[in-house]
Structures are given as structure tokens and as C-alpha cells.
Amino acid sequence: MFEVREIHDKDLKTHITLEIMNALPDWFSPPEDIKKKSVIHRDMPFFVAFDGDRAIGFIALKMHNQYTMDMYNLGVLKEYHRQGVGRAMLKAVEDYGRRNGFKFITVKTLDASAQYEPYEQTRAFYLKNGFYPLEVFPLFWNEENPCLFMAKYIG
Q: Which sequence spans correspond to the domains of the chain?
């Protein structure tokens, strides 16, 4: 059984980011980008799923404005995929958003036109959990990695 908690300790946020993102090379790379994000996450709302004392997933949130928060990064260890971890973290994030007056959650992910199998699962997760694809930004990251912008109303 796992539980989701909001984490405030900046060093713990960095440690968890590095541990989980480095364990998921199909979704996160290169190493210098992971290290950069581990620092950026220190100042973001940060939710972690724990299996006992082990961190098995996280979501880092970026606040855009008083209405919209972005799931800046989300990662779940591969051996915990399809066990409800992502959904439980998303519920915690939605509850946090509602308590703080947010109306929307957004996320950016790799568009299907890139034809990269690991992200087919990612897009399916977002669609299953109420996110709608809004727009593709072909050059947001680079030509090989077109960005799909998705949003969910949490009112």
C-alpha cells in the first residue's frame, strides 16, 4: 500500500527528483536536464507517493497564475506503473488545487506524431484521467519532440 504526501523539505525534493528521474531514462534525459530540474523543483509544490519509506513517484507543480497550475514533472517508478500511483498523486494535486482556488491543471507531454511508445502510455493516462488535448506546439522543445498541451478543469 502506498500513501501520497506533500513534501516541503527542499533537499528531499532534490533527492527524490534525482532518484526517480534517473530511474526512468525512457521518459527523462539527459542527465544535466534531470539535475537542473532537481534544483527547480525545490521551490515548487511537490507531492510524493511512498511505499513505506520508499519514494515511488512524484509530481512537481508550477503555478502559472491564480487559475492555472501546471504538472511541471510527473514520474512513477516503472515497477509501480498501472497500480494507481499516478491516479492517487493526481487526486492529491487536484485537492490541493481546489483548496487553493485553482480552476485548471495543465500538462505538456510528447505528441503522438513523435511515435515514441513510452509516451503513448503517458498520453493514455492523461486522457483516462480527464485531460483534454488543446494544442500541439511543434517547436516548444525541438523538432524531434513536439509538445502536446493538455488541460483539465478542476473547478
A: 3-153
Nearest to 109 by CA among 54, 71, 63, 55: 71
Q: What is the pLDDT of residues 36-80, one digit of tens each?
A: 999 999 999 999 999 999 999 999 999 999 999 999 999 999 999
Q: How is domain 3-153 classified at the CATH fold level?
A: Aminopeptidase (3.40.630)
Question: Is residue 1 pLDDT above 90, yes or no?
Answer: no
